[in-house]
């Protein structure tokens, strides 16, 4: 087996990678645009979702309103507030995606330092992890949200901040950190920051969001396929 790299630290995206949350955004967004039947939202739903994925909420809101010609109807803040009202009831139902629990617990129990780097804003992050709070706090030494950075993905800022916030032993550099992402924008950010990366594309969205500009080091169908030893990380114990 060829070693893909010598990884000492891991950085995880959250939405669509660890937690199945994208579906809630679709449901909430559908409801917001129900009152604007003429804007063409229904016809372009998947395409718009692809454009918004992985972006900071303000950027995504501005983009979707501009695309639909609704800038005079709602400000990005109003859109986000309407959507948030609906989301508040849905997000705490977020479930872990296949392979996430096993991998996170394995890395934690093997002493591999891990951080979370999510574009999600802090209030939404808290709702989504409400039923997984213990797992997240025990697995991640620090959890960065969209509000902790100036530049959203595909800018590498959130990954660089996550890298620099690790305690001792610190990673030797970006190339010692493995970034897990489902969105092409996230992979773009990881590559721009000099990180090694694993892309686990959302199956439904893959067709609309396309490929990252520069490919990740590895692409997997699910986190279940990840083999830590390929990256110099401790292997799973056979069960
Ligand atoms: Mg994601």
TrEMBL record:
<protein>
    <submittedName>
        <fullName>(DL)-glycerol-3-phosphatase</fullName>
    </submittedName>
</protein>
<dbReference type="InterPro" id="IPR006439">
    <property type="entry name" value="HAD-SF_hydro_IA"/>
</dbReference>
<dbReference type="GO" id="GO:0016791">
    <property type="term" value="F:phosphatase activity"/>
</dbReference>
<dbReference type="InterPro" id="IPR023214">
    <property type="entry name" value="HAD_sf"/>
</dbReference>
<feature type="region of interest" description="Disordered">
    <location>
        <begin position="212"/>
        <end position="239"/>
    </location>
</feature>
<feature type="compositionally biased region" description="Basic and acidic residues">
    <location>
        <begin position="212"/>
        <end position="230"/>
    </location>
</feature>
<dbReference type="Pfam" id="PF00702">
    <property type="entry name" value="Hydrolase"/>
</dbReference>
<dbReference type="InterPro" id="IPR036412">
    <property type="entry name" value="HAD-like_sf"/>
</dbReference>
<dbReference type="InterPro" id="IPR023198">
    <property type="entry name" value="PGP-like_dom2"/>
</dbReference>
């Amino acid at each position: 087996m060829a070693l893909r790299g010598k990884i000492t630290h891991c950085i995880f995206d959250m939405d669509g990678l660890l937690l199945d949350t994208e579906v809630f955004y679709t449901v909430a967004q559908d409801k917001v645009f129900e009152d604007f039947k003429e804007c063409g939202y229904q016809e372009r739903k998947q395409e718009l979702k692809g454009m918004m994925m992985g972006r900071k909420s303000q950027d995504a809101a501005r983009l979707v309103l501009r695309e639909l010609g609704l800038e005079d109807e709602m400000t990005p803040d109003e859109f986000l507030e309407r959507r948030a009202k609906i989301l508040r009831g849905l997000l705490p139902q977020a479930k872990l995606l296949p392979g996430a629990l096993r991998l996170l617990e394995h890395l934690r129990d093997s002493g591999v330092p891990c951080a979370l780097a999510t574009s999600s804003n802090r209030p939404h992050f808290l709702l989504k992890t409400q039923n997984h709070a213990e797992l997240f706090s025990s697995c991640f030494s620090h959890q960065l949200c969209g509000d902790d950075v100036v530049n959203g993905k595909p800018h590498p800022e959130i990954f660089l901040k996550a890298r620099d916030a690790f305690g001792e032993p610190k990673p030797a550099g970006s190339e010692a950190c493995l970034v897990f992402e489902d969105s092409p924008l996230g992979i773009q950010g990881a590559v721009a920051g000099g990180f090694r990366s694993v892309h686990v594309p959302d199956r439904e969205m893959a067709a609309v969001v396309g490929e990252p500009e520069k490919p990740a080091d590895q692409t997997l169908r699910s986190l279940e396929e990840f083999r830590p030893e390929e990256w110099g990380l401790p292997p799973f114990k056979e069960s």
